[in-house]
Amino acid sequence: MDISNLKIAVVGAGYGGAAAAKGLSLHGADVTVYEQATEIHEVGAGIGLRPSTMALFRRWGVFDAIAEVSSPSDYFEILTATGDPIAKDSWPGMDDYELKTHTHLIHRGDFIDALTGVLPEGMIRLGHKLESLEDRGATTALRFANGETVEADLVIGADGIKSTVRQQLFGDHEPVFAGEHAYRVVIPTDACHGMVVDDNLRMYIGRGTKVYLLPLRHRDGLSFDVTALDADGTWAPQVTKEDLLAKVEGFDERIVAIARDLDLSTVNVRAVYDIDPVATWHTGSVTLLGDSAHAMLHHQGQGANSAIMDAGALVDALLAADSVPAALAAFQAERKPVTDELQAISRHGWTDDELDDVFPGQKPAAQAAR
User: Fold this and answer.
1) Closest by alpha carbon to 214, among 184, 245, 246?
2) How far separated are the first and last CA of the chain, in Å rounded?
3) Where are the beta strands (DSSP E) in 109-220?
4) 215 Cβ contact list (under 8 Å, min separation 6)
5) 129-172 pLDDT per residue, tens
6) Beta bridge pairs of residue 268
7) CB-CB neighbours of 103 under 10 Å
8) Rounded to an integer, what distance in angstroms lies between the CA atom of residue 345 and that of residue 364?
9) For the whole model, what pTM was predicted?
10) Residues near 367 by Cβ (< 8 Å), separated by ≥ 6?
11) Coil, strand or helix at 46
12) Cβ of 360: how many Cβ atoms within 10 Å?
């Protein structure tokens, strides 16, 4: 199959959608990315791009664009709330000679800017909220809220945890509340009370709370993430400084000091959600990708990496297959077992006793499969 003959519509300009568009455009496909927002903007925190992800970017010629706005990291460390060591290990894949790279720590905003910045001019169409789609077998028609209609040989649904593509073609998979709140903010290094000493992730674990300290020294900052058990499933909960301080009570005094100094209006606070595994990701001309297919909790730091690896696997499947349906079947066969396992592992966040403190006699739905 010559993918340069394909007209491809990508729904969503997040990590997975932008990466798929880049990979496909390198092989001459006619790709357009439709994004509902009027501007592309990521908030909240830093993430780690694993060696396999960075190796894919090297293969696609965009490694340098990502490396310029990130810091290579050697290892991650897990500690008790008060700083006693639990575990310390190099990042998975760092010892793989073929990958030849580190995990890179990067701000979400810098990452999406770098990724969309390497796409051809005009490939992203902003202000296009998908309203409906009609699977016609060999092609699929899309209708957007602004009245525009498009027909494509392949539609890639990369529209996130609340995916319209998934809801309309693959059944109801409503987001599942994990019983947690995440407080995320990036602060300057000089506000970190000496906690930024190198380029390695540290996670502090106390009863019902995890604190992730992810250095962003290339931009003189620290990504500060507090993930704590909470029974309030409101998507964007209203919280106070006292709520946050209660979550980190008993932690290293420097962590408490960081939390105390924060301007809460700068902190992104969200209830934490994932979805149950989706049985089928594709039809003959439509596929899901990234969070739309397998949104997962952030405990393993694999959401963005999984979306990027999806994009790489989809491009490779399209290059190897003799038809779009065959490529989509091969793509799902390769990636779904991996993401199913990552979803399950990422849900194993807390002990039964810890959960019972917040949900007496029951578990939140996201923990029920443990």
Assistant:
1) 184
2) 42
3) 124-125, 130-135, 140-144, 149-152, 154-157, 176-188, 201-206, 209-216
4) 71, 105, 196, 198, 199, 200, 201, 221, 222, 223
5) 999 999 999 999 999 999 999 999 999 999 999 999 999 999 87
6) 184
7) 30
8) 16
9) 0.93
10) 178, 179, 347, 349, 350, 355
11) strand
12) 8
Per-residue CA distances from 124 to 111, 149, 179, 314, 329 (Å): 16, 16, 35, 19, 27
Tokens representing 48 are 């780690």
Sheet with 103-107: strands ordered across: 46-49, 103-107, 70-73
Residue 369 has pLDDT above 60, yes or no: no
pLDDT tens-digit map of 199-225? 999 999 998 899 999 999 999 999 999
Which pair of structure tokens corresponds to residue 342?
Answer: 């990552």
Q: Residue 19 and residue 103: Cα distance in Å, rounded?
A: 18
> Which residues make Cβ contacts (< 8 Å) with residue 83, sequence separation at least 6?
204, 252
The proportion of the chain whose per-residue pLDDT surpasses 70, expressed as a percent, equals 97
Structure token digits, residue 213: 């300290």
Query: Is the distance from CB of 32 to CB of 9 less than 8 angstroms?
Result: yes
Question: How does DSSP assign 55-118, residue by residue?
Answer: HHHHHTT-HHHHHTTEEEE-EEEEEETTS-EEEEEEPTTTT-TTT---EEEEEHHHHHHHHHHT
Separation of alpha carbons 186 and 215, rounded Å: 9
| Helix ranges restricted to H, the chain | 15-25, 51-59, 63-67, 108-117, 164-169, 241-247, 253-261, 291-294, 303-320, 324-346, 352-358
DSSP string over 218-231: GGTEEEEEEEEE-S
- Residue 155 exposure: Cα atoms within 13 Å on the Cβ side: 31
Q: What region does 271 belong to: left with phi over 0, alpha with psi -120 to 50, or beta?
A: beta
Distance CA 237, CA 325 (A): 42
